[in-house]
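Lecture 7, part B: from sequences to assemblies.

Below are the input chains for today's worked example.
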Amino acid sequence: MSKATPATSLVDCDIHNAITPAAVARHLPERWRQYHAQFGRRMTPGDYYPKATPMASRTDSWPPGGGPPGSDLAFMRRQLLDAWPIEIGILNTLITIRNQYRDYDAAMATAANACQVAEWLEPEPRLRASLLVPFEDPQLAVTEIRRHAGDKRFVQVLIPSRTTEPLGRRKYWPIYAAASESGLPIGIHFGGWSGGHPISGAGWPTYYIEYHTGMNQTFQAHLISLICEGVFEEFPKLKVVFIEGGIAWIPPVLWRLDRSWRQLKAEAPTLRQLPSEYFRKHFWLTTQPIEEPPEPGQFLEMIAHLDMDDRLLFSTDYPHWDFDSPDTALPSVLPPGLREKVRRDNARALYGFA
Amino acid sequence: MPKHIVSTVAEIPPGSRKIVEVSGRSIGVFNVGGEFFALRNRCPHQGAALCTGHLGSAVTSTGPGHYEVDRSGEILRCPWHGWEFDLRCGQSWFDPEKVRVKSYETAVAPGSSLAPPSPGLVPGPYVAETFPVSIEESYVLVEFGPVA
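Predicted structure of the full complex, as structure tokens:
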């Protein structure tokens, strides 16, 4: 799957900056700084499985000056932003919101977003960020969304894929209302803490390889739920980005869902279109970890079945261990025009980058 | 095939490695218990600097619940996606029909044998002051380039 890179610029739609406890503490108000220091944070929920490598990261991504991978902007510039012609990179910081308790989650989200502005977005104009919100308490999430409404450096609202309920549930609708109002897509990213649900629909698997491969089950649950609950009838302008959810599994799920809808639409009468039509109208997909079928022709078939050439967004997942290189991740069989869309133009169009 | 001097033996003690550049190619040279191996420093998957990866063992299994650890320090794991390659031959041990990384022949030779010859020179009338020099070090050679 290797191929020399075209030298055109690209947008990286999934970069993980680490906001360390010390960094977030710099932006917490006194009450929460004290709490943070005295009680601390929940022990890494969601890390039920080992992560392939320490911090799930490329072993060459630990900053030489110390700190975890993704915590050092200068090193991120050297290893990612300057190493490839990245015109814009979107930060998705992941482990800050741990569903500890709601006021604390809200304070952490506010502090982490302030930290992102001061320590990442201000010093590095190539970066944009996803907005962290206490998503399991949508009213508090709305407060955070409104706090940053109009700040173009925040490009979407981030929700991890392992939520406590399927994301079509009305509980989450205030987030969608606020996001629609602010013109922000919802970015749903691999991982998170489920509140106790296993990754699969049939209990807890044993190995990380099962977790990593099986994560698309969470995206499948959200795809079906968001469409069937009528979210896109209620919020016709809502945009959803599946980040790190994979691609190849989607066409068969849409075929299956369309077929079911023809038979069962009396159960969900809110829907006025085929489920696949909602999907193609409201969803975008990041590429990493791009599936690597054994024959190059099968990759093109996958893209054809998906039929969403304008909705694929290139992403590296830096600094994580399953990083996709801008040089080699997209196979050489991808036609040049589509390659440019995926690498750059689709992201520019979705997020309004110049 | 041309042989390139890439290192002294002392620079790469057992268990360590050195990344060298030969004719524009980045190559990792490894010392495993006194044996030297050289692999191209580029993973065939997505191009990471393979030879900076972790060196570990081969773990095999004859069935669920059984495992064996073998070949300690001879299996190189890519720093990005963890693809594993055999230092001895560049072979991957998954999908071995399709995936391998370029490996190079290595040799160790004493410095004295590598000193440039001086054929056809006739001694002139002057002799400068000299100091005794002995070459005790040995060098690691990597074979790379067109066959002569």
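Note for the exam: Strands of chain A lie at 10-15, 86-91, 127-132, 154-160, 186-189, 240-243, 283-286, 312-313. Keep this in mind when comparing with the next example.
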